[in-house]
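DEPOSITED CHAIN:
***
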Amino acid sequence: MLSLCMIVRDESAMLPACLESVRGVVDELVVVDTGSTDDTRELARALGAKVLEHPWCEDFAAPRNTGLAACTSDWVLVLDADERLTRSGGAALLLALESAAFDCGLLPLHNAARVDSAFDAVVNGSERIAEVAYLPRLLRRTSDLRYTGIIHENVGEWASKGRRHAILRGVDIVHLGGVPDVRAKRDKYRRNVRLLEAACARNPDDPSLWGYLAYEHQEAGERGAARRAADAGWKVVLAGTSMTELTMLRLATARAWLQVQSDELVGATETLDQAGDLIAAQPDIHFIRGCISELEALRADTLGVRAARLADARRHVAAARACRDAVHLQRFIHGSTGWAAETRLGVVELLEGDAAAALSSFDAALAENTEALEARCGRVEALLLSGDARAALREVQPALGDRPDGWVLAACAAGLAGGVEAMATWVGRAQATLAAGFLSPHRRERYHDALGVLALMLGREVEVPGPLGELAALAMGRGEDAGRPVARGLGDPLVTALARRAVTQLLRSGRVDEAERLVSPSAERRLPGLGRLVEEAIGALEREGARGGAQ
């Protein structure tokens, strides 16, 4: 026997289709109404549901538990009114119950891109927003089954008490409430923050409340408020308050992730270390540690340290991806085992100079999340890295917006093609959007590369870090000391290609004095391989001239 259990309020538009989706699958419909002002209750009764009323009490777990208490079946299926069990999902659910060797079934939830998206298209990913979420929705009804949490209510405490878990692929749920215009109409953020702030004021020593509040603010892009909530909760953690593994995971993930986004890498590492081994194997933790290592690589002062940190980043991201098929009752970073992890891996591969591997990783990310702009920019950069400036220019258009990444990549593509005027235009657009921040932190290095190449092509003074800024400085007669090489040298294929194009243009314009400075011993010490690059450029021009003379 299987009961559908749900809570509703003013859901007359959504509820009928939800109940219709479980017809022939469930044996009992239990609907708890929390104060509808429309005809939700009447519709539910007309469709055969047992309707209970639970006046709204600022606590989502309470009506959930009222519904559980009214169920009479051995199993409970939990849905919301804006969710639909697919036809094939219903058949798969009944099959899973025939020989159930689990207590808690995690069902795949697919966020529809549009309210009218075909369910098959949502499930196969072509009309889905972000990655599939596996949620505990098929529950064995036991005497201690209950929800906790005033918002984001969950059965985590019940499920962690020795329950057997199973991921039930194929029991697909389509969620319509994630559609942007639906979400905007419901204004859940303001409601949830109001509830949580009041709860935190009543129970300031409850770390789970602070963790939920931090996540609500972060989801809405309110990082300052999220950080204040996370820090308040962390004080409770450091005071030695006992808490569940899920509460520790929520707070540690929220705080460390906010610290990473604020470039507080030491603080983020300390947060994760203080959380201890209890949550060390969680995919979100692996993902955050990978991001920390990636950012540390960008700060490295030698190529050796940079390579070591990139290897660490690769290891952590691989560990996050390996958790994709494991059972985790809650995850807090979108895509940490899927598209976001593939994107981070692609960035590491870009920084390691492996264009083909990076292209494959970004394609994998985009196959799962077509809206992943960072992956789309990464794909353009991988094309540049492989030397295909034309293809990069064809694909960069969607990334030309209010973030500098796309403009920087367009500038680099123009630089490879020798288009100085176009490069200057794109660099200018990148400068105008710097305040919005880079999608990928490493792209600031590409911005500096573009500035250095443009300055060299135009014969202008510039002071920017990186190998191409150094190249421009050397050509202008600055920076010729005997110090150690710059941390990021000419080993990067895109850097090498841009440097070769700039040196070739310098030679073509007859700037002999500047070219001679690039083949000095001190210049070679600063940029190992520079002398050979200049010689290759000279040889190419000589061969070009010879061919022209022969004609």
In short: The chain has 26 helices and nine strands. The two ends are 88 Å apart (CA to CA). Residues 118 and 127 are 8 Å apart (CA to CA). The domain at 2-185 is CATH 3.90.550.10 (Spore Coat Polysaccharide Biosynthesis Protein SpsA; Chain A).
